[in-house]
Design goal:
The protein is α/β, with parallel strands linked by helices. It has a single domain, classed as Rossmann fold (3-Layer(aba) Sandwich), CATH 3.40.50.720. The chain is built from 8 helices and 7 strands.
Length: 255
């Protein structure tokens, strides 16, 4: 259990599966009650949180919608009374060449991946300020520091997340609230497993191994590789770390 975790309440967006699910499970193991905010029902994650002995709340939520996030805030406050830890993990990464990208698609990705962090933070920061304690962790991506094609909207949204993280950290530092981001490399998750492999590769397993070969640690990244950093950043031990984006990518990007 991390110092300061016991009996805290977390909201984890995108916790229905993938990296967000691993985050929800780890926070529960750390002693935290967890609200699972996802488009999907999140039953599997609820079972994991409860198996760790903590309270779980499944909230059907579209993080890109102001109305839906307002309903999330109200459900969480009704069930748990507050939110101490906000993890903005919901995200999408459809591959599309820039010359076929419509403005509508650009706006959709920016809205799910970036506007969402604004909406959830706006909803839960006032309570954190009142209590003078809070932890916000956002998801960046190693694509921001790599050569990638077909992800202009996605990479732009993650660049926005890094800027949002730095700027919000400056405003919230005086209130005992830290804001950081985790930047994974290509991670095996339901989302990446369902992607079409890049040209010339026979399947995603080949692409995962290709990505692993560009890392200092040459094995495929999995969601469990990210949970230790999440646990640390949300604990009291990380109270003096804010505005940072931490690469957890097997040594792919150095900055
Ligand atoms: N997997 C990777 O290689 C990788 C690398 C870098 C960054 N990331 C980031 O990590 C996060 C999680 O990625 P993942 O690979 O676990 O994805 P995933 O597709 O496996 O899971 C994403 C979850 O987010 C939910 N979601 C999507 N849109 C939503 C919306 N509008 N409202 C609420 N929930 C929504 C989905 O239903 C799903 O449960 C994303 O922000 C992604 O950009 C992933």
């Amino acid at each position: 259990m991390g110092r300061g975790h016991k009996d805290k309440v977390a909201v984890v967006t995108g916790a229905g599966k993938g990296i967000g699910q691993a985050f929800a499970r780890r926070l529960a193991e750390d002693g935290v009650d967890v609200a699972i905010a996802d488009l999907e029902p999140g039953n599997e994650t609820v079972s994991m949180v409860e198996a760790a002995g903590r309270r779980a709340l499944a909230c059907r939520c579209d993080v890109a919608s102001e109305q839906s996030v307002a309903a999330l805030k109200s459900d969480v406050e009704k069930a748990f009374g507050r939110c101490d830890i906000l993890i903005n993990c919901a995200g999408v990464y459809p591959q599309q060449a820039f010359d076929t990208m419509t403005f509508q698609e650009w706006r959709r990705i920016l809205s799910i991946n970036l506007d969402s962090a604004f909406l959830t933070s706006a909803a839960f920061v006032p309570g954190m300020k009142q209590r003078q304690w809070g932890r916000i962790v956002n998801m960046a991506s190693s694509t921001l520091g790599s050569v990638v094609t077909g992800f202009v909207h996605y990479v732009a949204s993650k660049g926005g997340i890094v800027g949002f993280t730095r700027a919000l950290a400056s405003e919230l530092g005086p209130h005992g609230i830290t804001v950081n981001a985790i930047s994974p490399g290509l991670t095996r998750s339901p989302g990446t497993l369902s992607r079409k492999p890049r040209a010339g590769m026979k399947d995603m397993d080949e692409e995962f191994q290709f990505a692993a070969n560009a890392q200092a640690i040459r094995r495929v990244e999995v969601p469990d590789d990210l949970v230790g950093t999440l646990s640390f950043l949300t604990s009291d031990d990380a109270a003096f770390i804010t505005g940072q984006t931490i690469n957890v990518d097997g040594g792919r990007v150095r900055s």
